[in-house]
Amino acid sequence: MMRALLRSVIRNATVTHADSASLRIDPILMRAAELLPLEQVEIVNVATGAHFTTFVEPGQEGSGELRVHGQARAGDVVSILSWGFLHEGQTLAHAAKVVTVDAHNHVVSLLLSPGDAVH
Fold this sequence. Notes:
Number of helices: 1
Distance between the termini: 32 Å
CATH topology: Barwin-like endoglucanases
Structural class: mainly beta
Radius of gyration: 14 Å
Helix content: under 10%
Strand content: over 45%
Strand order of the largest sheet: 5-2-4-3-6-1-7-8-9
Largest sheet: 9 strands, mixed
Shape: globular
Number of domains: 1
C-alpha cells in the first residue's frame, strides 16, 4: 500500500502578486523545499482557510516573489504543501522539510519534522 505523506511545507509565505495561473516562486524557496518545476502543490490561505491546488514555476532568483491566482491576494500569508507517496515500509524513516520564511519570503529556518535541523 502507498501512503501520501507531507514531503515539505513552506510556512508563513507572503503573496507578492495575485496574477499567476500557477505558483510562481523564488527558486531559492523551491530548492529549500525541494520543489520541482511543474510539481503539484497545495496552497492554504492562512487568513481564510481556503485550499487550492496548482503547480510550481520558478520565478526570479533572490526576488522573494510568490505569485498565485485568485484564491489569495497580495499580502495574504499562505502555507505551501507538497506531498509524496511512500510504501508502508518507508514511512517510519520519513521526515518532512519545514521551511519558515520572513515577511519578504527569505528563509529563516529549515527543519526536518519532527525537529532536526537541516544545513
